[in-house]
Amino acid sequence: MTGEGAAGRPELSRGKVLQKALELADAEGITGLSIRSLAQSIGTKPMSLYYYVANKDEILDGLVDLVFAEISTPQAGGEWKEQMRRRAHSAREVLRRHPWAIGLLESRKAPGPETLKHHEATLATLRAAGFTVQQTARAYSLLDSYIYGFALQEAALPIAGGEPMAQVAAPIIERFASGEYPHLVEIATQVVMQPDYDYGNEFGYGLELILKALEPASAA
Amino acid sequence: MTGEGAAGRPELSRGKVLQKALELADAEGITGLSIRSLAQSIGTKPMSLYYYVANKDEILDGLVDLVFAEISTPQAGGEWKEQMRRRAHSAREVLRRHPWAIGLLESRKAPGPETLKHHEATLATLRAAGFTVQQTARAYSLLDSYIYGFALQEAALPIAGGEPMAQVAAPIIERFASGEYPHLVEIATQVVMQPDYDYGNEFGYGLELILKALEPASAA
DNA sequence: GCCTCCTTCGTACAGCGTACGAAAGTTGTT
DNA sequence: AACAACTTTCGTACGCTGTACGAAGGAGGC
User: Across the interface, which of A138, A146, A186 has its CB nearest the CB of B205?
Assistant: First the structure.
């Protein structure tokens, strides 16, 4: 009707839709990603997207898969601890770049090919390092629990940036006077509000503690 | 207008609104909780709710606080490891009862009084056990990361129940033939699809591993 | 009787996902 | 050249969402 590219040679593709959806989610947050806003950012009309995806849920599934594709994949050859360390730090970094993805993990049920590939490679690395099947399952669950949980807490902080920690403490400050939360005050003043404090740096501490405890022998 | 209780003595209260919202979220999931559906379940009209809450976000904040109130609060007197164990298991159980709450944690910025009380009590217990301020912050972050991450993964599983694990494996089964994911198959068949397997039982394994590694002295 | 406050809620609006079907271009066949 | 078949785009409309605005009506004080 209006059309420059009405038919035959497609102007659009499923990949382009997902790519633009990723950019839009990064820019505006997951609530800013609507079919209408996505179509506008692509330069097309809402209903055109439905030729490439069945519904919005399929877009969200695709986004999760794109995010998994960004996480560094371990190789079965290398030293397992170093491989898991790299993977963990990469996963955290990716989830910090796409904080909306954490909430999506909860509701997706159809893992994409990149997701499966990633899991497969990680499991292969642990098995090759001598973990039994049982140990592998437990170690993987433990590591991912830590990674996702840390990312979740990080995403719940006010905003990324240097030291916006004064803001997270601000609403509590009002109740400071009552002396009702002395230990929260203690943590806030002596740790969180220190000028060079960055919560993200704490990730390595917990990760190393877990890796250290995860020797194949002791993970039974 | 229509009303049995039009004015003066309120039929409603903020607490009742939040209570009903909790029940509705448990019954229908967080997407089933709309202002209209909530009003209907209470037996009033949508706009009446806005006398008690400023907007829907305030309801969600209130729900998170209600959930925190359900988590067993540690006592500063007892043995810290046992206190943290109890708290962790309680938190996981509560988040399994209210799986929608996990996704809410990400987006809430205003902690409620119950949330603050809970944090305060947990911090107090760790400090009383001899953890330094720094160690306390790290230990707490580590424990909560694990708890939230585990709950998140648990919520991502198909449905609660005995052994619905065959379902989560089903979509992958199609790609079994290709031999592309041998380790996923291995885990699926030898661990996940075992008739008595319950992912929730794995929580204790990781928790004990973390608690063991968390001695105040070594947590520097 | 009236005035003021508390509480309820009817109406309306802009936004959402998407079902349905029409329109228009390209390609293949004759 | 004509026509059919297929691919791709998108206009319209429906039922849903949160909520701004303001009217309505009962309760208590004077």
Answer: A138
